[in-house]
Write a structure and sequence with these properties.
The complex is a heterodimer of chains A (566) and B (160). By secondary structure, chain A is of the alpha/beta class. Chain A contains 23 helices and 20 strands. Chain B has 160 residues and is of the alpha+beta class. Chain B has four helices and nine strands; from the N terminus they run βαββαββαββαββ. Chain B is elongated and about 55 Å long. The relative contact order of chain B is 0.20. The chains are: A alpha/beta (566), B alpha+beta (160). At the A-B interface, loops of A face helix 1 and helix 2 of B. The structure holds thiamine diphosphate (TPP) and magnesium ion.
Amino acid sequence: MEKISGSQAIIRCLQEEGIKTIFGFPGGAVIDLFDALMDSDITNVLVRHEQGAVHAADGLARVTGEVGVALLTSGPGATNGVTAIATAYMDSIPLVILTGQVPTPLIGNDAFQEVDIVGITRPCTKHNYLVKDAKDLVATLREAFHIARTGRPGPVLVDLPKDVVAKMVDFPEKKPIRMQNYQPTYEPHPGQIEKACKKILKAKNPVLYVGGGVILSNANEELTELARKLNIPVTMTLMGLGGFPGSDPLSMGMLGMHGSYTANMAVAHSDLLIAVGARFDDRVTGRLDAFAPHATIIHIDIDPTSISKNVKVDIPIVADCKHALTAMNAWFNTSSDFNREQVAASHEPWLETIGEWTKKHPMCYLDEGDIIKPQYVIEKLDELTHGDAIITTEVGQNQMWAAQFYKFNKPRQWATSGGLGTMGYGLPAAIGAKMAFPEKTVIDVAGDGSIQMNIQELATANQYKCPVKVAILNNNYLGMVRQWQELFYNKRYAGTVMEVTPDFVMLAQAYGAVGLRATKKSEVEAVIKEALATDNTVIMDFVIAREECVFPMVPAGKATTEMLLV
Amino acid sequence: MKHTISVLLQNKPGVLSRVTGLFSGRGFNIESLSVAETLEPSISCLTLVTRGDEAIIEQITKQLHKLIDVIKVTDISDSEYVEREMVLIRVKAEAQTRAEVLRVIDIFRGKVVDVSPKSYAVEVTGSASKVQAIIDILRPIGIQEIVRTGTIAMARASKK
Ligand SMILES: Cc1ncc(C[n+]2csc(CCOP(=O)(O)OP(=O)(O)O)c2C)c(N)n1
Ligand SMILES: [Mg+2]
């Protein structure tokens, strides 16, 4: 067999997986790899910070459903990536992160730019490898991609010592991967499906509670079919937005800490909660003993550890969401017990109750003359992009307003750091998304605090002609923390006042981007229109009502019915 | 409730720290842990003793199973099983206590594995409670050092 260098073999593995774009930052330990990349058709997007590389790969992965790839050097390059790896891990995003490592004879000697990145990332990767022997290189990379994308997806890190990458290796033909010790369960147990379906037919007040698993398994159509077939209202987690059309009459929007009044009331009064690819996170459940207290719980998840972790589940279904929902739809389609009109009609009283909750407390905010309300900005973004943009976010109030007021009708148009809540996620993620879909509008809804955490990626956007739009909801505060201080700490704004903030318009210009500012409500629309019409990266600086709070809000540790409202 | 869990895993570097990291990271407790190669050198068997209510033990077994390098997880205490632990005890053995020490060792079917003018090193094997019992009995005589292996366990073969 013809031998090729380890670095060429790695590039070939990427090509084999259909990778067109990776995000990387070089250093001594990965020069060989960058060198080999130059001769390939794979684009390396040279980021300005390794956290940006991994977030960008993550953004690409979320909007495409493919595995994102980042390439970092050893030592500080690798550690700089850790926050972003943990971000992807918490949200189950498939990534392969390649890190350089010092040559094998030096490992363990505190060599220059050596860190035990496999040790450091063990708790925040789905799996990781240190390749010590060049003959394992190709098989390890193939396995890494397999693990990243199958089952409950997640980031996989492969640490590559410099001497291993430099060796000559065989490149055997790819065979289907079978791992004795790793075989995720895709197919649901038919008995459990039947049990669940029969339970659903008996329910008077059912609710579908939809999480990121529906997006990850591309099960939105199956979910929508089920909800409409049985006339069941749907609520989504932050990660599940887009899993069901946000403008469908059956959608109650998001649930949980900043969920809609309707969604939280519906869950609290439901007699059957059908959780699909969701994990009963504390931001969703609030006080556990008061969460869905009257409901029988059906839980579909591909990860058995998610089931009965926080909340005791009555009917567990370990399966891929798409497979399980397909099986449920098929059961209803063929069951003689199921009469569509009758079931739909039987849920009407429940839907009426739900409609009354919405009438009583709709998602809303108070208009204040010409002051810019952040919610208004999001509504305008939604309107002017016809609800069709890819939205990424930073973290904090900006993120919650985006989740509450943009109507996500499709999956994979929403990329936000849910589990880890990583400030600085949005801009690099937007770049990753835009690299994948250059023809789509990609907007990072940002806070003035978060945007400064990875602002350097404006240069990347500019270098790769990747015209993302950044909408800063500028309150000159670390707003979400300030909100907690306003509500629970006697308005003592410790550490949340941004006394010095750059002029974002000038900052944009310094990076070769366009900066626009709106200080009045009447200017918002024009700024957005101009930004959308500009074929360049744009920062929109919206100077918003400074002390606006995100409502509804369930205070931490309270029952989800104990909402603070507008 | 005490549970004894047996885990088959790939015999590779770093695998043990995946297991211990899981326990420390998620706040599960480990009372004892012992690990060694199986008949198949590429596979190790790890026996761990932990405590927790049903929900915690369920999480522990699921989380262990989720580790890529883990092949099989069995909660041995779900059925009939035998468990053994070995202890080495260095106990003071001077003229006036030697006979007493030997008698105790004999009752526990232990062995003296090292002798010095002033002490015996004793090996005892048995269930964790038997090991604890001999420690308790020898303690007043003067234990200088003990080393325990932690429990290993095996399900009983089916009687059919
Ligand atoms: C890396 C990181 N550090 C700290 C936090 C805690 N935190 C959550 S929201 C927030 C404020 C964010 O401020 P800004 O970006 O201005 O958003 P706003 O809430 O004002 O919209 C902070 C500090 C975090 N989520 N991530
Ligand atoms: Mg702010």
